[in-house]
């Protein structure tokens, strides 16, 4: 019954967040995006510039209601942004409110959500079949996290709220929800939550300190400059960068906090006579075994995102001291090191909190 109530409560929370307006549009010009089948292409307006193409690809597209329009696909010689259509593709096109015959639509991108939804549905089924009620609750926590970021965190930051503060509150909320879903109102859940939050606080403080002393301004984030020129010139990119560091590492922090809290619980269950010092030492030893792989996980995750940048430096023969001192790599170093600091600190924090909870008493069941 407890599982049913928990799942129902968080299903309602997710439904409530769905009703919250998302990030506001800068202007309402009455346009909408619709799917359309590409029935004809004309590449005569494209020019090859080295490895990339530049120009306009002319399309003829058929809307779901049967109407046929001309559409334009602009290629700007930017491989990360450009797309090219072939006959039979499904495109996402911009349709004006009062589109008439002869209007030329804009082909925005390929329609990918069909397979995307199928992929997500497969993930949901696998998670629920494998995890049972725990998997279902994990699915709700996943959806809840996505909605908190999109419906609350991003709109508040765009509205001018202090980015790192909003991120901290969001991470605290998500940590509490996820710990409750996984462990319930128990000593283990409280210990994991408290240890994780102490690690998050330490990560946020370290992000502010090291980000400033290393002169990382936050403009290294993708599309940061475009965001400023889109009507949000008052954003503090450095503070957004600090918040992004905490948000990116919070998942690993929660994972480690729960690992140590669960380990201490097992030690206490099998040896209930152990005192605070012995339990804390056991938690620290568990943390030592996990921290090594977790910090490497963060390093690989961040370096994977900038693998091509590192390949460029290698191809150019740039000395390690030169590229480590560059703005982009320095920003990644701050991300990795701050996240690793938080992980290392959450281990003793959680071990101490868990030992105190199990030896001095705390509300809730073990």
Report the helical percentage.
Answer: 55-70%
Instruction: Tell me the number of strands.
Output: 6
Spatial ordering of strands, largest sheet:
1-3-4-6-5
Give the CATH class of the largest domain: Mainly Alpha
Do you know the CATH topology of the largest domain? Multidrug efflux transporter AcrB transmembrane fold
Give helix and strand order, one letter per element, not per position: HEEEEEEHHHHHHHHH
**Outline, from the CA principal axes?**
globular
Low-confidence stretches: 362-366
Keywords:
2 domains; globular; OB fold (Dihydrolipoamide Acetyltransferase, E2P); 63% helix; disordered C terminus; alpha+beta; 366 residues; Multidrug efflux transporter AcrB transmembrane fold
Record the SSE blueprint:
Layout: H1 2-19, E1 32-42, E2 46-49, E3 52-62, E4 68-76, E5 90-95, E6 104-110, H2 113-158, H3 163-183, H4 187-213, H5 224-228, H6 237-270, H7 276-305, H8 307-315, H9 320-324, H10 327-360
Parallel strand pairs: 4-6
Antiparallel strand pairs: 1-3, 1-5, 2-3, 3-4, 5-6
Care to give the gist of this entry?
Strand 2 and strand 3 form a beta hairpin.
What does this structure look like?
With 366 residues, the protein is an alpha+beta fold. It folds into 2 domains: 80 residues, Beta Barrel (OB fold (Dihydrolipoamide Acetyltransferase, E2P)); 201 residues, Up-down Bundle (Multidrug efflux transporter AcrB transmembrane fold). The chain is built from 10 helices and 6 strands. The protein has a 5-stranded mixed β-barrel with strand order 1-3-4-6-5. A hairpin with a 2-residue loop joins strand 2 and strand 3. The longest helix has 46 residues. The protein starts with a helix and ends in a 6-residue tail after the last helix. 31% of the residues are buried. The C terminus is likely disordered.
């Amino acid at each position: 019954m407890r599982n049913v109530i928990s799942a129902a409560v968080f299903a309602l929370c997710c439904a409530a967040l769905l009703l919250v307006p998302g990030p506001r549009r800068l202007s309402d010009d009455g346009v909408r995006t619709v799917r359309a089948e590409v029935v004809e292409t004309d590449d005569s307006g494209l020019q090859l510039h080295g490895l990339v193409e530049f120009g306009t690809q002319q399309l003829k597209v058929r809307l779901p209601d049967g109407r046929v329009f001309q559409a334009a696909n602009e290629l700007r010689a930017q491989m990360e942004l450009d797309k090219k259509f072939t006959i039979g593709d499904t495109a996402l096109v911009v349709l004006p409110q009062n589109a008439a015959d002869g209007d030329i639509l804009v082909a925005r991108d390929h329609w990918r959500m069909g397979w995307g939804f199928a992929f997500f549905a497969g993930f949901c089924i696998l998670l629920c079949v494998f995890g049972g009620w725990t998997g279902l609750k994990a699915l709700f926590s996943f959806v809840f996290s996505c909605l908190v970021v999109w419906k609350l965190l991003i709109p508040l930051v765009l509205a001018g709220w202090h980015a790192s503060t909003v991120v901290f509150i969001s991470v605290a909320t998500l940590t509490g929800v996820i710990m409750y879903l996984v462990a319930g109102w128990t000593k283990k859940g409280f210990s994991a939550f408290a240890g994780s939050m102490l690690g998050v606080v330490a990560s946020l403080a370290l992000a502010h300190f090291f980000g400033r002393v290393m002169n990382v301004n936050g403009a290294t984030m993708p599309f940061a400059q475009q965001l400023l020129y889109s009507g949000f010139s008052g954003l503090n990119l450095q503070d957004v960068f600090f918040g992004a560091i905490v948000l990116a590492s919070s998942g690993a922090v929660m994972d480690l906090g729960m690992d140590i809290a669960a380990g201490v619980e097992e030690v206490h269950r099998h040896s209930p006579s152990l005192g605070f010092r012995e339990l804390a030492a056991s938690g620290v030893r568990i943390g030592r075994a996990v921290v090594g792989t977790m910090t490497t996980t963060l390093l690989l995750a961040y370096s994977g995102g900038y693998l091509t940048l590192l390949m460029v430096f290698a191809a150019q023969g740039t000395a390690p001291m030169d590229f480590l001192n560059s703005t982009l790599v320095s920003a990644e170093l701050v991300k990795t090191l701050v996240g690793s600091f938080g992980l290392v600190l959450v281990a003793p924090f959680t071990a101490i909190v868990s030992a105190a909870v199990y030896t001095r008493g705390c509300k809730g069941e073990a």
